[in-house]
Design brief:
Chain lengths: 314, 98
């Protein structure tokens, strides 16, 4: 089977949810798994960072972040003008799609590891920097630059939110101690990573099943958007990756990052910053459509895309 | 035992801190908050997932404070957030403490 076994756990959760099983993961378990995954990914990135030269990374990071702004801006135009969605909803959904999903990234990394395709370890650093700019763009789209917007609250929500905190914290720890200094952490945070990811995906499958009712509310427009926008963003990811000289695996993961939509950091930030937006739409699209699409079809698809592009433009 | 008001507020957990502040600003001596789940008629969020639950506040306070709490919360949050706010007459021990 070329598909990663962790995806099987997602499918299991989905089926369990659809069958109305009493299986459920407690809130505490979700929180624990989230904390583990964020720390593990941050740590890994930090280990890699400690072995790379930071000045060399500054330009790629800046470019990757700036180009990622295309996703929320384009999303907003598509949703507001073409889709005739209310302004606040369009802005909030754009913020979700401009931000990234740590779990989708983890599935992508697992997929590449299984195929034996290498990728630059510092992609986790990109992940960290891609989490929050889109949230700011979303708020700007929604409210414009006026004093009504509670920037302090948004800043606190975004920068002190657990996603950023754990990712950056893990990154710093990994960077400061390096792989040698942090060797004792490797059995827990690296060797067991796949198992924890599998459990988390089991829960995500359950959650996605419960959100399928949202799809009726979301409507065909957002379902289509939830599939088309990731693919469009993935193309951008491959292009940017090639431009900054990433390897095949690296460009694939960048495409995965661009294509993913956040449902951990973004919903909380948006609920606070753009309360007028309907969260059922944004979470319904991000979790009900884009997340399953990305991990079931997207990841292998983006890899094929990158392979084709790198074949034509080596 | 003396007469007092018992106020219950149920809101989305994104609002927990803001509502806590409103309650204290309105003059209440304290409150109790617990995590609950449920569904409402707006159909915007069904709090059945671990991603989003609700918070339930219980406050014991004099009538004027209760009115202040319910009115300020209603005016600030009810438009964009799911909210239930009600107050009822109650008898409490040491009601003069509130």
């Amino acid at each position: 089977m070329s598909i990663d076994p962790v995806v099987g756990f997602f499918a299991l959760g989905l089926v369990a949810g659809l069958l109305g099983s009493d299986l459920k993961l407690s809130g505490g378990l979700y929180d624990t798994l989230t904390i583990y995954l964020l720390l593990a990914i941050g740590l890994k990135g930090g280990f890699e960072l400690s072995q790379s030269s930071i000045p060399e990374l500054l330009f790629p990071i800046a470019l990757v972040v700036v180009m990622s702004a295309v996703t929320p801006l384009l999303s907003y135009q598509l949703l507001f003008r073409l889709g005739k969605l209310p302004h606040f909803d369009a802005a909030s959904i754009s913020a979700h799609y401009g931000s990234v999903s740590v779990v989708t990234f983890a599935v992508g990394a697992s997929y590449l590891a299984r195929l034996g395709v290498d990728y630059e370890g510092y992609l986790s650093v990109f992940l960290v920097f891609l989490e929050f700019p889109a949230l700011i763009i979303g708020v700007l789209l929604a409210k414009g630059i006026n004093k009504d917007t509670e920037w302090k609250e948004l800043a606190k929500e975004v920068l002190a939110g657990k996603a950023i905190l754990l990712l950056v914290g893990g990154l710093l720890i990994g960077w400061l101690w390096g792989r040698d200094g942090g060797a004792a952490l490797i059995p827990f945070f690296e060797h067991m990573f796949k198992g924890f990811l599998a459990l988390f995906l089991l829960g995500m499958g359950l959650m996605t099943a419960s959100r399928l009712a949202d799809l009726r509310r979301v409507g065909p427009l957002l379902i289509g958007f939830g599939i088309a926008m990731p693919m469009l963003s993935a193309v951008g990811g491959v292009l940017v990756g090639r431009f900054i000289g990433l390897s095949l695996g690296g460009a694939t993961l960048l495409a995965v990052l661009y294509a993913s939509a956040s449902y951990i950091a973004a919903p909380a930030a948006m609920r606070s910053a753009i309360p007028e937006a309907n969260p059922a739409l944004s979470i319904g699209a991000a979790l009900g459509v884009t997340f399953p699409f990305n991990i079931l079809i997207g990841v292998p698809l983006y890899f094929q895309l990158a392979q084709w592009f790198y074949g034509v433009y080596p | 035992m003396g007469g007092i008001q018992y106020v219950v507020i149920i809101c989305e957990d994104a609002l927990e801190h803001k509502i806590g502040r409103e309650i204290i600003d309105a003059g209440a001596k304290g409150y109790t908050v617990s995590t609950v789940r449920g569904r409402g008629n707006r159909g915007v969020r069904d709090a059945q997932s671990a991603l989003s639950s609700n918070a339930r506040f219980e406050i014991v306070c004099p009538r004027n404070v209760a009115l202040k709490i319910v009115q300020s919360i209603e005016s600030k949050f009810s438009q964009n957030y799911g909210l239930v706010a009600c107050m009822m007459d109650a008898l409490a021990v040491r009601s003069e403490e509130y």
